[in-house]
Design brief:
- This protein is of the alpha/beta class.
- Helices cover 51% and strands 14% of the residues.
- The protein has 11 helices and 9 strands.
- A 7-stranded mixed β-sheet has the order 5-4-3-6-7-8-9, sandwiched between helices.
- Helix 6 packs antiparallel against helix 8.
- The longest helix has 30 residues.
- The radius of gyration is 24 Å and the shape is elongated.
- The protein starts with a strand and ends in a 14-residue tail after the last helix.
- 34% of the residues are buried.
- The N terminus is likely disordered.
- The structure holds NADP nicotinamide-adenine-dinucleotide phosphate (NAP).
Length: 303
């Protein structure tokens, strides 16, 4: 049974206002998602493998299902968020009959290949399936800064867009290929972890020179603030395969990497990530990109 209250918007489209929605997986993120759905007034059913999680959600009005199947059958919209796709498949694979006629949204993070495998499973069972990838920590869920990518069933996205936006105002639909959400996720995380590794190494190098992290942190904002135009410019260069190095060329910047590498080595720091960076830029220079922009190192990365 599905319970949907509909409203007619000024543009004439009908969209659900409150829906029955199930959240499977009550780890830190699943609890945040269920909390946001409760905040938005949706009738929320929850289930978790370990039964004691989510007491606060139940106190706020969520219904705890006795089994994953009961949870699926309780709602028209089923959101899953567990550790990885192996776990989500362990839960969902036995429930294809229960899932029929509902919309399944899997917000579990994993690789594009595993997203493809899950999408093939959903397709084989004719399930209406949206894949998602959450790009923000739990505190941001439900707010205007939250970003969750969606891909797969366009009709499911269109029907439940307002509900999905209760989880995060940033909710772009990337296209019908379910793997796109995971692919965007991986690229975003690639940037994030590379940046975090550089940030922590910078603090280690400062510490080796007896500079407290807090002393240099305010100045690092200068680097952070020049990144937005660099992101846009680098993207434009890479898409156009045009790497104009006027103003800052790769050979000059690689000399800069070499300085950081030697300064780190002389203080006994691990230099493996700097050596990896330099190996790529050296290869790009050897391929003729010394006078080009840093973006040209993409040509030395393969793929
Ligand atoms: N937390 C974040 O800041 C954040 C940000 C972006 C994306 N994400 C993504 O959100 C997803 C969930 O993260 P989380 O922070 O909620 O993780 P978590 O707190 O570690 O919770 C993991 C969840 O997965 C369940 N689980 C693990 N293996 C299972 C299995 N074999 N069968 C059934 N359930 C299983 C756990 O159930 P039990 O309680 O029974 O162990 C629990 O509900 C992950 O894909 C993560 O990458 C998280």
């Amino acid at each position: 049974m599905t319970m949907v209250r509909m409203t007619t918007h000024t543009n004439g489209s009908s969209a659900p206002v409150t829906v029955t929605v199930t959240v499977i997986g009550l780890g830190a993120m699943g609890q945040a998602l269920a909390g946001a759905l409760l905040d938005a007034g949706h009738r929320t059913t929850v289930w978790n493998r370990s039964p004691r999680k989510g007491e606060e959600l139940v106190a706020r009005g969520a219904v705890r299902a006795g089994s994953a199947e009961e949870a699926v059958r309780a709602s028209e919209l089923v959101v899953v968020c567990v550790v990885d796709h192996e776990a989500s498949q362990q839960i969902l694979a036995p429930l294809t009959d229960a899932l029929a006629g509902r919309v399944l949204v899997d917000l579990t993070s994993d690789t594009p290949d595993r997203a493809r495998t899950s999408a093939a499973w959903a397709d084989a069972h004719a399930l209406d399936y949206l894949a998602g990838a959450i790009m923000v920590p739990v505190e941001v869920i439900g707010g205007p800064e939250a970003l969750i990518f969606y891909a797969g069933s366009q009709s499911a996205y269109d029907r439940y867009e307002a509900v999905l936006k209760a989880l995060g105002a940033g909710a772009p639909f990337l296209g019908p290929d379910h793997a796109l959400a995971a692919a965007y996720d991986m690229a975003m995380l690639d940037f994030f972890y590379g940046s975090m590794a550089g940030l922590v190494h910078a603090f280690a190098l400062a510490r080796a020179e007896n500079i407290p992290a807090a002393a240099i942190a305010p100045y690092l904002r200068t680097i952070v603030n020049i990144l937005p135009p660099i992101v846009g410019g680098t993207a434009a260069d890479i898409d156009a395969k045009a790497y104009n190095g006027v103003g800052a060329n790769l050979a000059m910047m690689t000399a800069g990497v070499d300085h950081v590498l030697h300064a780190s080595r002389s203080r006994g720091l691990d230099t493996s990530q700097l050596e990896a960076i330099k190996a790529v830029s050296d290869r790009a220079i050897a391929e003729g990109h010394g006078a080009d922009s840093w973006a040209s190192t993409v040509e030395a990365l393969g793929g």
